[in-house]
Every structure is written in structure tokens, then in C-alpha cells.
Fold:
Amino acid sequence: MPKAIIIGSGIGGIATAIRLAVKGYQVEVFEANAYAGGKLSEIEFNGFRFDAGPSLFTMPQYVDELFKLANKNPSDYFQYEKLSEICRYFYEDGLRLTASANTHKFAKEIAEKTTSSEKEVTDFLAKSNTIYQVTHRVFLERTLHKIKSYLHWDTLKSIFSFGQIDAFRTQNTANKHFFKDDRIVQLFNRYATYNGSNPYQAPATLNVIPHFEYHFGAFLPKNGMYSIVKSLVKLAEDLGVQFRYNQKVAEIVYTKDAKPKISGVSVNDRFLPCELVVSNLDIYFTYKNLLQHFPAPEKLLKQERSSSALIFYWGMDNYYSDLGLHNILFASDYKKEFDTIWQEKSISTDPTVYINITSKQIRKDAPNGCENWFVMINVPANEGQDWDTLIKDARTNIIKKISRVLNRNIEKDILCERILDPRTIESKTGSYQGSLYGNSSNNQFAAFLRHPNFSSKIKNLYFCGGSVHPGGGIPLALLSAKIVSDEICPVI
Ligand code: FAD
Structure:
């Protein structure tokens, strides 16, 4: 049986392992950490459980697909439910909106409380659908780097419809055109942050993102986000995949001839032979650390990185009925916040604060009478800023902001705390500069500038995960695994 080695057990690596095991490969996954999941992980302390990374789950069908591929019943491994309420929005001027999964209800609430109309919302969501229809097969589900992708009829149709994807104005410019009320512009501008970009620079093509939430839905796994990882690792193990934890791969080994070809990897000074290698770690470190003697695509690696995050995990000694599972407390000056992140590479004094509280739905995630708050703000990628000072100031500003907006002193309720910042994101998950989604999507060519899912120079070397095509976030990392697997022949 030919052997495939996967480097890294992020969601993309696990999904690739499953797909290759189904194709008949003997698969071994090497993971530097003591646990699987990479950015998608969890932490527990003082009786509280937190999903440490992603908190919003969309496109669960991509997870289900893996169980079905292995002829298993998805719900035997993994359960999730669709949310009826997607997010609660809070503005400094007192406006509060609840984004219902029922878009008519949401549009009606917007029309009742703001100067925007129901029609503005429905027109916007129709545009979001159009962009999805034009882009998903071309940009998300296939490699962009092989001629064969462009020979499909649906790809050609999409290419002829490119004018509709709104690539030549910024997301903010488009949204100002769609909505009269600046607060609704702000609400839909926020979707640029879903792949770590800046709505004042990124193309309006990113208006495709709300389609994932409002058309396909937002979901919550019954046992929290980390159960995605646990259930997929279980499936992979049932298929014979072997996970090796605390095993950092030092080098990707290839034949040194005119047509280099994978021969194995090196781990702890041991050479492990294999037929093919899939690297799931950040493409930057794949080249800089594991392929040190191979010419790297320097231009690609120098591209601007997506933003990072600063997260406070707070065990709260109280219930907050104003808050739901997902909550956004908007900055008063959104443009200024993004200028501070992207131009000054710093943190705004009035950042937009995201609060995720899984114990609202999963009671066992916090002790009785308590809640588990995941409090996150967007921050620049790590370029050596004075993070200790920035974090100290941000903590004060965040506490002041939440207390002001909820009209309640929250500081006294913080029982215990852990912090994740760009430096620790980099050291714990191997993400260059701690960015959450690989390169940013701040220019309209970003989709074409991501690294392909295969090496054109070393035969049998492949790449998956959020730093390569088609991009970051759980759904796209899962699609990268599909694209890799589509390039690899089954074992006969
Ligand atoms: P990664 O998670 O990047 O994992 C790579 C793995 O490789 C790690 O386990 C690492 O330890 C391992 N590794 C590195 N070097 C080596 C080596 N030399 N040898 C062996 N192993 C190695 N996405 C969403 O969809 N929704 C969200 O709400 C969301 N929010 C986020 C919030 C935060 C705070 C973060 C950090 C991310 C968020 N994301 C979200 C993004 C999402 O988590 C990532 O895009 C996705 O999990 C990336 O998966 P990946 O396959 O690229 O692997």
C-alpha cells in the first residue's frame, strides 16, 4: 500500500488524511503539538471550557461529506444544529439589532430601527447570491492552477460572468451604494474580517461571505467547535490513519535530480520514506523551515498577511441576558479602527468587540451561574509590536466598552482569564506572524496569488490548509483537502 505522510493535523490535514485513506493510501499524520486541530482547538480551566479558535461554524455539509465518503453515518460521529439567531449587534448610539436566520425578519427589523429599507437588504443578499453562483466553482472548488479547470462548461460560464463579481470597487464603496444607513454599511463591511481583510481596501467580491451565513446558515456543533476535530480524528482512526503527536517534521526530503520527487520526511533525525507528502502547515514555514534548500516563491511569500486576533477567555461569574451566542459591539469609527490595524499596525482605542458565549447553548461549558466569554478583537499580524503594552491597554478599553454598551460593570464578574495574542497564535499553530487566514484578500487578485495545492517542481508534494488555495476558514480549509485529493489517483 503506498504511504502518504501529512504534516500537521489542522482541519485541512485531518480532512486530507481521511480522503487519502478512503483512496487506499496508508496515511500517517505528524503533528508538532500534543493534540490535533491546530487553530481549531479548545482550552479548559477553573471549570470553564472554551473553543480557543474558530467560533462560527458554516457549511457543515463539507464535514458531513467526509463521513459519507467513508460510508459512515455522519450523525453517529458528529451532531450540530442550525442557529435561528445568527448574531446580536450593539452600537454605541444605543441601536441593537438581532440578525435572525430568517432574512425577512432581519430585513424587517433593519427597516423598523434604521433608515435602511427591507428592499436594500434583499437586494444586497441577492447580489451576494449572484457572486456566490459565479465564483464558487471557479475560485473555491477547483484548482486555479491547471488548464483542465478552465475547460469545464460551468467554469467558462463563470468567466463570462466575471463582470458581476464586483471586483473593481471596495467592499465599503459597494455597501455604501447598497445601504442608506451607515450602521448597516458597517454591519455588512464586517464580513471582510471573516478572512482577515480590510473592507476599505478589499474588493466587494467579499460580499459573497454573507451568503454562507444567510443562505446556508450558521451552525453550532452540539459539543462545541472542537467536536469537529474530535469526530474527524475518530473517523480517520477508524479508517486506519495513524496520528503521531509531539512529532515535529524537520524536513521534506526529495530526490536531488533533474526532476525532483518526494522520498520522505525527516522527524527527530529519522528519515521516514513515503510516496507522497501533504503539508498542512503554513506555506511560509513549509518553504522556510522544511524546504530550506529549495528555491522558495519569494514574491508569493512576501504578500501582505491577513489580520490576527487578540482573545481574552474570561470565566464570568454572572449571566448576561442581553447577550446571545454571538455578539458584536461595534466601534464608533469603523474606518479609524481599520486604519489603526492596517496602516499603523496597532490597536484602536475603540475596537469592535466580538463576544462568543457557548455556555448560552452548551450549559456544561461553564459552572452554574457563570458564563464562558470568548472576547476577541481584530489586531494586526505580528511584526514585533510591543504586544505587552498593547494588550494591557486593549484590555482596559475592552472592559470599558462592554460595560458602557451593556450599562453594567463587567470587570467585577471576571473570575479567571487566559489570553491568546498574535505571538502565541504563531507559536502554538505555526501560523506566520500569527495571522488567522494566511494572506489577506485586500486586493482583487488575491485569489490568484495564493499558493496552489500542489508543487509544480517537486513531484508528489501537495499543500492544504488555510494559507493556500482556496483560502482560510474552516470551510475553505476543508475544500483545500478536496482539491488535493482530486489531484491524487486512488490506489488500485
Ligand atoms: P492549522 O490550524 O493552521 O494547523 C496547522 C497544524 O500544523 C498545527 O496543528 C501545527 O501544530 C502543525 N504544524 C506546524 N508545523 C509543523 C511541523 N513542522 N510538523 C508537524 N506539525 C506541524 N475559521 C472559521 O471558519 N470560523 C471562525 O469563526 C474562525 N475564527 C477563528 C478565530 C481564531 C482565533 C483563529 C486562530 C482562527 C479562526 N478561524 C476561523 C480560522 C480557522 O481556524 C483556520 O482557517 C483553520 O482552522 C486552519 O486550518 P489549517 O488546516 O490551515 O491548519
